[in-house]
Amino acid sequence: MATEPDNTGHRARLRQRLFEGGPDALLDHELIEYLLALAIPRRDTKPLAKALLTEFGGIAGLLTADAEALARIPGMGETSVAALKAAHAAALRLLRGQVAARPVLANWQALLDYLRAEMAHHAIERVRVLHLNARNMLIRDELMNEGSLDEAPVYVREVIRRAIDLGSAAIILVHNHPSGDPSPSRADIEITRQVAEAGKRLGIAVHDHIILGAEGHTSLRAQGLI
User: Within its chain, how far is the Cα of 201 from the centroid?
Assistant: First the structure.
C-alpha cells in the first residue's frame, strides 16, 4: 500500500530557519510551500508552490491574485486559497497601518508600498480614492470603481460628492494599469484635471494621481501634469 510522504522533518527545518533567520531566511517558494502546508498538511506542497509562483509571475502576483484565479490551479482548494488570501490581507493591514500612523505627504514611501501591494498586480483596472483631513492624515481609503482589462470609469461628480460627505480636505486618486505600464494616458490626465478643478471650487485639494503597474508607478504631480 502506498503511503503519503512524511514531510515533518523538512517542514521543521523550514520553520527553524524562519525563526532564526527572519523573513529573508526562506526563498519565495519555501515561504509559499510552508504556508500551503498549514492548509494541506499531509501533502508535499513544494511542487504546488513552485507552480503557483510560475503561473502568477512571482510572490507579489500570487498573493494579489483573485481567489477565483487561484482556485483554477490544479491542487488548490478552498482552504489553501484562503491561506494565501489571509497572508495577503495581513500584509495589507500592516502596510495600511504604517500609512495611517503619520501624515501621508510626510510618509510617501509607506503609501507607495501599500498601494503597490494592494493594486499593482490586479488583472483588471481599479480606481481608489484616498481621503485626507486638514492634517493630511488618511481618513478613508475607498475603492470607487473597477472595470475591464484596460478601463475603469471615473466620475468627477461621484468623487467630489464623496469627498464632501466625508469632509475631506484633500484627496489622492489612484488606479492601476493591468498592462504593467504605469504611463498615464490622455484620458488619465484629463480626468485628473477635471477632478482637480471641481475640487478647487469647493476647497478640496487633489494632491496627486498615482498610477500603478507591475513595472512601477507614475505620479502625475511629479510629472507636472496636475
Answer: 32
Q: Where are the alpha helices (DSSP H) in the chain?
A: 8-21, 28-39, 46-56, 59-64, 67-71, 78-100, 108-119, 156-166, 186-201
Backbone angles phi, psi at 47, to 5 degrees: -60, -40
pLDDT tens for each residue of 110-143: 999 999 988 888 888 999 999 999 999 999 999 9
Q: Are 93 and 107 in contact (CB under 8 A)?
A: no
Are 9 and 37 contacting, i.e. CB atoms less than 8 angstroms apart?
no
pTM comes to 0.78
Sheet bearing 205-213, strands edge to edge: 138-146, 126-132, 170-176, 205-213, 216-219
Radius of gyration of the chain (CA): 21
The answer to whether the CB of 211 falls within 8 A of the CB of 218 is yes
Q: In the chain, what are the domains?
A: 10-92 (1.10.150), 104-223 (3.40.140.10)
Residue pair 139/132 in contact by the 8 Å Cβ criterion = yes
**What sections of 65-218 are H helices per DSSP?**
67-71, 78-100, 108-119, 156-166, 186-201
CA 48, 52, 58, 62 torsion: positive or negative? negative
pLDDT 10s digits, 170-200: 999 999 999 989 999 999 999 999 999 999 9
Contact, 162 vs 124, CB < 8 A? no
